[in-house]
Write a structure and sequence with these properties.
The chain is mainly beta. The chain has one domain (about 30-135): Avidin-like (Lipocalin, Beta Barrel), CATH 2.40.128. About 15% of the residues lie in helices and about 40% in strands. It has one helix spanning about 5-25, and strands spanning about 30-35, 40, 50-55, 70-75, 85-90, 95-105, 115-125. Strands 1-2-3-4-5-6-7 form a seven-stranded antiparallel β-sheet, with no helix packed on it. The chain starts with a helix and ends in a 13-residue tail after the last strand. Forms a strong non-covalent specific complex with biotin. Pfam families: Avidin (PF01382). This is Avidin. Its main location: secreted.
Length: about 140
Amino acid sequence: MVQATPFLLMLSLALVAPGFSARKQCVLSGRWVNDLGSNMTIGAVNGKGEFTGSYHTAVTATRNEIQLSPLQGSQHRTNNKGQPTFGFTVNWSFSDSITVFTGQCFVDENGKEVLKTMWLLRSRVDNINDDWKATR
């Protein structure tokens, strides 16, 4: 029995280790919800790091009815550390504006995947004199 113990320990470590490494991988594909209730779905990331999806925002500055909007993006594909950087553009279906997001996918201390992003929204304005108020 004493000789079997090291073998069982090695076997259990081999079986558990893939679970630990898998939790450290952050995968963009799937459904994401932010703190405000907006949600997006990202499809499969192809070999070039490109992806498409959709975004349904919970907040808007327009009085138009919110609609599901398409997104296109790119993930940094040479990142072997499992927490990739990425960027994507949302072309809002219900307004004359576009938002670009850039960020990184992280795995927190509880093994939960989290996207941290910053964004810029550009709205259409009637003339160049209003350019100053077109980007948030």
